[in-house]
Amino acid sequence: MSRRPGSIAALWWAALVIPLAAVLVACASWEPVMRDGWGHLEWLRRTKLSLASVYAFYREAYRAENPRLGQVFTLVSYARGPYHVIVTPLVELATFALATALALGRWPSVRRTDDARTAALVTATLAVCVPQIGAMLCYRPFTGNYVWGLALNLLWLVPYRFERVAPRAARGWLAPGMLVLGVAAGLCNEHTGPAVLALGAAATALAFRRGGGRAWMIAGLVGLGAGYALLLGAPGQHVRYAGLADQATILERIGARGVAGNLRVVGALALALAPALPLVVIGALERRAAPPGERARPDAALIGLALAGVASTLTLLASPKLGPRLYLASVALIAIALVGWLGAEVRRACARALLGALAAGTLVFVSVRLVTIHRVVGPLGALRRDRLEHGAPGSV
Q1: Rounded distance between C-alpha atoms, residue 238 and residue 63, angstroms
Q2: For the chain, N or C: smaller number of CB within 10 Å?
Q3: Can you tell me the distance from the alpha carbon of 96 to that of 124, in angstroms, rounded to the nearest whole number?
């Protein structure tokens, strides 16, 4: 008895999501406390967790430390209990799902095998191209500040992307939610705000040109702009890193880095994306093999996503601090655009099978690496934490 296409697709989805979720849960449970995590743990040891105390924590961080909203996500993730092991993998899976939706221009369906392949390709591309993927997924200060921030920005972008693909009836109730979501997304990361705002503004302008502009689109733009302004204007920006941000102007910082230094900032993005080159080759070959009249038209939204990824990296030229973690959003936006382009170009069954095999192999490799590393460092970290928390006064 043959299975229906929907049931086969569900099996492919299960083969992707269940092992991935298991790996994320295992690594979250093994994650040791490191570096900035000790400060959050000490705060929770001295302070009872409540809405009032979390608000006080963020108010102090906004005034004198890291003003990103991700600091709150990071703090709460260190609370005792199973919350981190449950919530963090769900947020990471949701981030992959949102990236898939942006690549498709609609919500993925569990009844479509090609949607499962798209989700696998997006996830695999992020897994192999994002610098320090282990730390991004399994080090709470990075996860809270960057993965949560990326998730909020992608969630904010989804309605604009869907409106671009298929305009829908006016939904006035969406405006307040987009306003609040925009403020939250704007408060997440300094280097992603302008690019994401530009994407939303372009989608809004196109919608109004078509005569279908929506109030929620304006509300979302206002919210994101306001949140980003609050982030840049936070007093903590002038205090953190010993006032590093005020020690030079943007132009002075770019000039001091020199041509070679600035090229290294941009080149790091190209180097991170190098493992995705086989996907580009496959897509180019598929486009060449198609008859000229049947080749897919370039999708302006996907081009915009890719350009936004590049713009997010160019914004780093003005940053007083650099590091691999800051390339997450750039890689994600470009990966979404790349996989979305592949979905339109790849038609032959052999090419689709090759893409599926590449995605599966990549995910297996990265998953094995994550598990083997965290299986070792997890127990060692737990022992260290136990000795620090329960050691006798004066002991080493």
Answers
A1: 9
A2: N
A3: 10
